[in-house]
Fold:
Amino acid sequence: MKIYILGCGGMLGDALYKHLKSLDYEVLATDIQLTSDWVKYQDVCDSCGIHQTIQQFKPDAIINLAAMTDMERCEQFPDLAIEINALGSAYCAEEAYRLDIPYVYISTAGIFGGCTKEYYDDDDKPIPACVYARGKYWGELIAQTVSKHIVLRCGWQMGSGPKDKKFIQKIWKQIKAGATELNVVTDKGGSPTYVTDFSMQIETLLRNRCWGTFNTVCKGFATRYDVAMEFVKLLGLPIKVNVVPSTFWKKQFFAPRPASEKLLTLKLDATGLNVMRPWKEALSEYVKEYADYFSLEK
Structure:
């Protein structure tokens, strides 16, 4: 298969590209940030550019990883956030519909921000509570208009070492800067998601032509505190982890965030194709794979 990927310059794109190439797929990886020599320039908001590229490359599937994920920036620039997270999905969906090829779109557990449940299955009604979540929800609704769609809702992403922009990276930067204590919340629960496993899940569903919308997260649930404690333990460092409320970070992280982002993978389990491992096992592999990166001795 020939796979066209948009937004492939980040942490998930890095893992997905490497996985697909290891299986001998022909991949055209694009992004607006040329973070690797295998990434070519393409803006997900440029419909003409996408159309021309697809005419030339003739892909068998389109995977859209492009997203504006900085939640505070989304609140500050809502028009841009909606353009990237929703309108970009429309451009990809249009091409997939026209060619009758699969369209893979990545959504988020954050779309349940306005809900009050602790656990969410695939068919629960999303209620977005912030600009980021609203754009991603609209993006998945658009993707679902394509008959051969795969919409995957991820949780708290981790992986790809230097390209990691999420929680693990934020914790590691503090430690690397000399922090001996970390302040982490316990009032936010979620589902960690290892991008290596997530990439394998994308390919597995695509190869098996398994269309639909799936909650796609590692097994088990955690608070941010749980993840930080496990990470510090794996590093073997004498770092103290303090419990703080979310209000401790309200100036820095002012965008509304769900109290719970715990996803149940009922539909994915029902396919018999779930490759997502327990989050602690995945985090352990991540730390081992990037042992040199997660080292204070260099």
